[in-house]
Amino acid sequence: MHYQPMTEEDKRQMLVEIGVSSFNDLISKIPKSLRNPKMQIPEGLSEIEIQRLLKEFGSKNATSKDYLSFMGGGSYEHFIPAAVAQITGRQEFYTAYTPYQPEAAQGTLQAIYEFQSLITELTGLDISNASHYDGSTSMAEAALLALRHTDRTKILVARSVHPHYRQVLKTYLEGTHYEIEEFDFQPDKTFNRKDFSEKVKENVAGAIFQTPNFFGVVENLEGISEELHAQGALLIMVGHPLAMSVVKSPGEWGADVACGEGQPLGIPLQFGGPYLGYFSTTRALMRRIPGRLCGLTQDSDGKRAYVLTLQAREQHIRRERAASNICTNQALCALAACVYMTLLGKEGMREVGELNLDRANYLRQKISEIKGFTVDLKAPIFNEFVVKSQKTFAEIQKKLAPNKILPGIDLSIFYPQMENYFLICATETKTKEDLDHFVEALSQC
Q1: What is the CA radius of gyration of the chain?
Q2: Percent residues over pLDDT 90 in the chain
Q3: 244 in a structural domain
Q4: pTM of this prediction?
């Protein structure tokens, strides 16, 4: 807005219209203590003093660099090559914003296009968008796609899907005519197939599964897509992207939409965000993709050019037909994931996946040998697994704190019936010595 100066006559006329004689009369009912409050602001600091103060504040935080962390549950500690930060830190990427002008944003658009291509290859589906805010919003958008595409009112969700994701979905659908129905999991933490099948009705738009699920178990989804498709419903799969290098991809399971958290692909833990929600689907559903989509074409001179395409957002088409506009400059996070996957390549991605399998299964076996701890050794897992203890998680946590060990996540927070159960994660960042040290410390609890 341009600056619009007011003359004294303008001010007088405004006060007359309001019905007061002066500005002081206008604020006369506001307590004097609030009109000119005395701000208890200390004197300014020099740059070196500010740096020292910030370092002091920062030292109060406990990070996975200071502690031996076995926490997972949606945010994972993975090794990130130094080149990822070096490339994403370049100013042409670091300061770039929404690429609405393709002639001025070819670099950003190409990075988006490459990210989309890699995600489709990873998930085994036809087309990917340029990402969402995080895994939970990506899943919620997938549910909306299914509801709108089928013109139905109910979405099924496994209770083994991340609790935070299910909460976000409920928030999305609050106040709408849409309905969420959950189906339970079994004692071995896999979804209850009987409960699921009984709830697949004609009004169901789709069903959401997570594999590996929140408990770390790799689900067997044999026949699920066929069962849903027979009813005209869609299969939505949430998954850990690195797990797709060693287990079946969503495309191989017959999924219609694959979505989830891309943080494991070269993005640090960083207090829970910003993260990266990946989203891919089939060609049949591509015109319902929410967010931003980059395509490859040719300019008027026949040269390769990148553009935003199939822009099904409210500023491009009729609002009632528009998909969600849930995207911002997530391109920086997408670029980090793109660089990470490119540096590792297919073999590298598979090696990281195999290391996660190895570490988690080794640790699970060792913990099962400790008295007072129970672990299911039969369930197929990726890098997380559930442990039941005779002691409370709070006791274990307190006992291990002096050793600077974070033992995992208390599952009773999300599932009250799972008292004394906790979730442990072991990725490629943990050495055999780390795992043995944890097992030794746990045996003393």
Answers
A1: 26
A2: 75
A3: yes
A4: 0.87
Strand partners, 236: 208, 257
Record the tokens describing residue 338, joined without a space: 């793109």
Give the dihedral sign, CA 107/112/116/118. positive
Range of the domain at 402: 68-78+345-443
Regarding whether 401 and 336 lie in a shared domain, the answer is no
Eight-class DSSP state of 359: H
pLDDT given for residue 2 in this prediction? 61
At 280-308, the pLDDT tens digits run 999 999 988 888 889 999 998 999 999 98
Residue 54 maps to a domain:
no
Picking from 323, 340, 357, the residue at the C-terminal end of a domain is 340
SS (HEC) of 373-406: EEECCCCCECCEEEEEECCCHHHHHHHHHHHCEE
CB neighbours of residue 305 within 10 Å: 17
Q: Specify the DSSP class assigned to residue 209.
A: E
Instruction: Give the position of tokens 């869609």.
Output: 234
Answer yes or no: do 116 and 168 share one domain. yes
pLDDT band per the 50, 70, 90 thresholds, residue 1: very low
Label each residue of 292-336 as H, E or C.
CCEEEEECCCCCEEEEECCCCCCCCCCHHHCCCCCCCCCHHHHHH
Residue pair 203/154 in contact (Cβ under 8 Å)? The answer is yes
pLDDT at position 366 is 97
Tally helices (H) and strands (E) across the chain.
14, 15
Which residue from 264, 266, 260 is spatially nearest to 84, judged by alpha carbons?
Answer: 266
**Centroid of chain to Cα 394:** 27
Out of 286, 306, 340, pick the residue that ends a domain.
340
Highest mean pLDDT among 87-91, 218-222, 310-314: 218-222
